[in-house]
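Batch manifest line 276
LIGAND: uridine 5'-triphosphate
JOB: complex structure
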Amino acid sequence: MKVKKAVIPAAGFGTRMLPITKAQPKEMVPVVHKPVIQYVVEEAYFSGINDILIITGRGKRAIEDHFDRSDIPKKEKFTEELDNILKEINIFFVRQKEQRGLGDAVNYAESFVDDEPFALLLGDTITFPPCTKELIETYNKFKTSIIAVEEVPHEKVNLYGIVDCKEIENFVFLIEDLIEKPGKDEAPSNLAILGRYILTPEIFDAIRNTEPGKGNEIQLTDAMRMLNMRERMYAYLFRGKRYDIGNKLDWLIANIEVAVSDSELGEAVKRFLNSI
Ligand code: UTP
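JOB STATUS: finished
ARTIFACT:
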């Protein structure tokens, strides 16, 4: 079965980005020309997906407004680009009633997903080039759940979901286990889950059977751990760039990197950076 649907959870608190996120969703924080979530929707679209469900919640209404087609008479390049994409895609919204964790948020996608495999893209994470496109290509070969991972420094493993796995071909690993934010001494590898997944609908049953874990939240990693006991799962090593806009350093770096490679702003930004 082909991957035709995407789910984007965007209901989290965003406490690490306070006070920026006090009265606006962190997914609407700008990275140069566009809010973060626009990059995420564009990634789904450029990966061949036309039906997208965004999971929102309290304080997140600006996200819905952003994806209305604009009625501004004088067109602007990036608004027009988005309008053209919006002509071709359907965006649906559902509200997570309480912020009970990423696993709980994903569970709201069950009736949208139905019985198909789907792409899951965290609404506060951007990747260049589009990681979802590479994941779908890998899914088409293995036909089971695949999680994108990246190498992180050993001293930072406690900040991520980490996979225990063995390489079966270039950049593809069979997952043996998954651990959410392990201590530095218990981490089985330095391969960290980066926020892009292809999952089979069996994940919903696993989420239903997952007890609240770290932080008293329903952790997606714990549900995937259960899924991994029932079906084969793979990890795919993404070699591009990914930015977690939910932390201030990554957000700043993303802005600088996007600005430096921008056709209008790039040269001036480089001159400025050299000058300081
Ligand atoms: P984070 O782990 O970054 O959590 O969520 P958070 O609550 O958004 O941010 P902090 O930790 O308070 O700073 C990862 C992704 O999962 C979504 C977030 O919107 C983000 O895209 N999420 C998280 C939900 O949709 N619902 C939740 O209950 C938790």
